[in-house]
Every structure is written in C-alpha cells, then in structure tokens.
UniProtKB/TrEMBL annotation:
Transmembrane segments: none annotated. GO terms for cellular component: membrane. This is Phosphonate ABC transporter ATP-binding protein. InterPro entries: AAA+_ATPase (IPR003593), ABC_transporter-like_ATP-bd (IPR003439), ABC_transporter-like_CS (IPR017871), ABC_transpr_PhnC (IPR012693), MetN_ABC_transporter-like (IPR050086), P-loop_NTPase (IPR027417). It comes from Rhodoplanes elegans.
Length: 270
C-alpha cells in the first residue's frame, strides 16, 4: 500500500502541493485529475523522489520512501517506474535498446555501456514489446516511431523494470485520440493482468472516468476530491477544473454543458 501523509512542496513562496494525504491499495488504477498547474506533476515526482517534499511522508509497504538515499533510493525508483508525457526515450537508439534500459539495474554496468545485453534480458524486452504489439519495431530507430508507438516503448521499458507501482505523468497529453486509447489500454492491461498499481495524471476527465477505479482531484495544490468516478458530480468537476471545465467536461456523458458565469460547487447547490 502507498501512503501519502501531509505531503507539501513549496517553490519559493509558491505552494505547488499543499498537505496532500491519501492511501492507495495495491492493484488500484488511480487517476489524478485537475487543471494545469494544480500540482499533479509535482505530486507524482515527489512519490518517485525526483523532487524532495518540503513536508510530509511517503510510505510504501512499510518503507519510508521519504527517508531513502543512495542505493535504497535507486531501488525505490526501480520499484516505482515513471512514464512521462514526452516519453524520455533515446531517439537515435533502436527500440529494443531503449526497452533494455529498464534492465540497467540488473546487469553489470559495462554490459549496458557496450550494449552487450544478456540474451535473457533481450528476451524479456522483446516479450514486453510483444505485449503491446510493437515487437516488429524492435530494430527500428526510436525517433522514427509515432507518438503512440513511442509511448508504448516507454511503457515496455517501465514494465521490464518489474515495478510494483507505475507513475504516469500525463502519458497521453501529446497523443491523438486513437493513440490515447491504445496507450491507456496498455496501462490498463498492465494493471489488470499483472496487478501493478497505476497512479496516472490525466487532464481529460472523460479518459479518467473511463479507465480509473478511483479519482483524486487536485486544485491549487490541495486534494479536493477523492472517490469513485461516479461520485464526481458535475459541480465538483467544475470546481476542480475552474476555467478549463468547458474543455474537459463538455463531452462527458451525464454532465450538463458548462454555462459561462454559472456558479460552482456549494454556491451552485445553494
Ligand atoms: N521547479 C519549479 N519551480 C517553480 N515552480 C514550479 C516548479 N515546478 C512546478 N512549479 C509550479 O508549481 C505549480 C504546480 O505545477 P505542476 O507542474 O505540479 O502542476 P500540474 O497540475 O502537473 O500542471 P500541468 O498539467 O500543466 O503539468 C505550478 O504553479 C508550477 O508553476
């Protein structure tokens, strides 16, 4: 189980994440939603320890993640794989080598440097590519792939790390609608077939509702909603997304179109 307790991060006088607390059960598929600048990225990066919290604790299966350093911190980053909006692949290298980078902690470093990967690791990497229907691209330079294909390579790289948690930071933000579904399906498959917990930052409410078991809504750094997608009312969605509400909830089934100037949240209910 992942426990986040009173987690905050300040950048100068600006508070990016304010006193966030929640628990996530193993095997859950949780979406973090909110408008641009709400603190979603900072939250995920703190969990991976790419950013250090100003206050608060992160505990995973009894391990105090916030206290880790050196080798233990590297091990944690292996257990909690990150997936980024811009894929973070090495474009000039072939697809298989990019996936093999996820095995780097399990082989002597000279092997990774000279590209002398053990056959067993190559088989693991190929099998991960097969799962996402891109094994045929293994020998291709990664920069020649489409965005959706590249994100699947990044997911395969995360998978061969054998993580227990996947932290996906807006993984579909730069993809077209078809590739959005392909990539979200890949994450869902990992979650449902392998039981890997997924925590995924998403801007689109429609996608979050379709794929996640649970949503955590953030606004101005604070957690303002935590519950099942069905519990997220129209009024709450408007509160979370503010001025961006029209972009993200207009097409959601069961939601009324947003009227400019309409009151939100408690004010709307009054
Ligand atoms: N390194 C930094 N230095 C200063 N301010 C930062 C830094 N990183 C994030 N912030 C600020 O913290 C706030 C939260 O940013 P964050 O990227 O976490 O939001 P987000 O919800 O992920 O937004 P987006 O969807 O646009 O990525 C923003 O106001 C942002 O400008």
């Amino acid at each position: 189980m992942l426990v986040v307790e009173g987690l905050s991060r300040r950048f100068g006088v600006h508070t990016a994440v304010a006193d966030a607390s929640f628990e996530i059960e193993r095997g859950a598929f949780v979406g973090v939603i909110g408008r641009s600048g709400a603190g979603k990225s900072t939250l995920l990066r703190m969990i991976n320890r790419l950013i250090d919290p100003s206050e608060g604790r992160i505990v995973f299966d009894g391990v105090e993640v916030t206290a880790l350093s050196g080798r233990d911190l590297r091990l944690w980053r292996r257990r909690a794989a990150m997936i980024f909006q811009q894929f973070n692949l090495v474009g000039r290298l072939d697809v298989l080598t990019n996936v093999l980078m996820g095995r780097v902690a399990t082989v002597p470093s000279w092997r990774a440097v000279v590209g002398a990967w053990p056959d067993a690791d190559k088989a693991i990497a190929l099998s991960a590519l097969e799962q996402f229907d891109i094994a045929g691209l293994a020998a291709q330079r990664t920069e020649t792939l489409s965005g959706g294909q590249q994100q699947r390579v990044a997911i395969a790289r995360a998978l061969v790390q054998e993580p227990e948690l996947i932290l996906a930071d807006e993984p579909i933000a730069s993809l077209d609608p078809r590739n959005t579904r392909v990539v979200m399906d890949a994450l869902l498959r990992i979650n449902k077939h392998l039981g890997i917990t997924v925590l995924c930052n998403l801007h689109s409410l429609d996608i979050a509702r379709d794929y996640c078991d649970r949503l955590i809504g953030m606004a101005a750094g604070a957690v303002v909603f935590d519950g099942a997608p069905a519990q997220l009312t129209d009024a709450l969605a408007r509160e979370i997304y503010g001025l961006e509400a029209a972009d993200v909830i207009d097409h959601a089934p069961g939601l009324d179109p947003v009227r400019p100037g309409a009151p939100v949240g408690e004010a709307a209910a009054a």
